[in-house]
Amino acid sequence: MAKVPIEVVLVGEKGLADLPAAIALANSEQNEFLFSSASDDLARRLQMRTFEHNKISEFFDQMERIRTEVRGYYPFLIAAIDSELEGSRFGNLFGSHRAEKGIAVLTTSLVPDVIIPTDRMVAYFIYYFARYALSFISPNHRNHDDSRGCVFDRKIDKQDIVKSMRARALCDECRRNLVSGDGMLSASQFSALENLFALAGPNSQ
Ligand SMILES: [Zn+2]
């Protein structure tokens, strides 16, 4: 089966130096998803519209517009930025997605050495690559507010992310819904993503 192409758009630089290494490692550990660096054209256009403080809804509107402007086939895009993200309910997010449109964003703002040690940023990136790949394939599956050491924890307390950076990082309810729900996730895609979550674990690198 063809690999699912996911382009990572590098915008900014703070804390993002390990992004290429994360892309390479993510590709070397599974064969279902192909992560690649998006074109400079896409990155430049998004850079122009990325602010110090970004409202998620406006950011995603811009991403959708830019994807239309550049044309070409970009079904799934993850932007990697270094500035602040503000959602409708919570501020200072790690990232967010508009999965039904195939777009997501992660940020390094207030992450390295605040939540994640600088030398574990590769794990942080791979965690979010896998997290958003899951959402792209199963866009109806949502976060839960309570913390279960699961990638679908809402992480209202940002330190909670560390508990879900591990192998088998899905709670039973999420696992059950993802494997039996109405999503398109195949068994091999599921196991590819499990490999990636394991890479984000404390003992993998
Ligand atoms: Zn869960």
Can you walk me through this structure?
It is a single chain. The protein is α/β, with parallel strands linked by helices and 205 residues long. It has a domain at 4-143: Collagenase (Catalytic Domain) (3-Layer(aba) Sandwich), CATH 3.40.390. It is built from 7 helices and 7 strands; from the N terminus they run E-H-E-H-E-H-E-E-E-E-H-H-H-H. It has helices at residues 19-28, 40-48, 56-70, 121-137, 160-164, 172-180, 187-199, and strands at residues 4-10, 33-37, 53-55, 77-81, 84-86, 95-98, 103-107. The strands form 2 sheets. It has a 5-stranded mixed sheet with strand order 2-1-4-7-6, with helices on both faces. A two-stranded parallel sheet has the order 3-5. A hairpin with a 4-residue loop joins strand 6 and strand 7. The longest helix is centred in the middle third of the chain and has 17 residues, at 121-137. It is globular, with a radius of gyration of 16 Å. Bound molecules: zinc ion. Zinc ion (ZN) binds at residues 144, 148, 150, 152, 170-171, 173-174.
What fold name stands as the CATH topology of the domain at 4-143? Collagenase (Catalytic Domain)
Distinct ligands, ions and cofactors found in the model: zinc ion
**DSSP, total strands:** 7
Q: Provide the residue-averaged pLDDT.
A: 94
CATH architecture designation of the domain at 4-143: 3-Layer(aba) Sandwich
Helix content bin? 25-40%
**Strands side by side in the biggest sheet:** 2-1-4-7-6
What is the CA-CA span between the terminal residues?
29 Å
Spell out the helices and strands N to C. EHEHEHEEEEHHHH
Radius of gyration: 16 Å
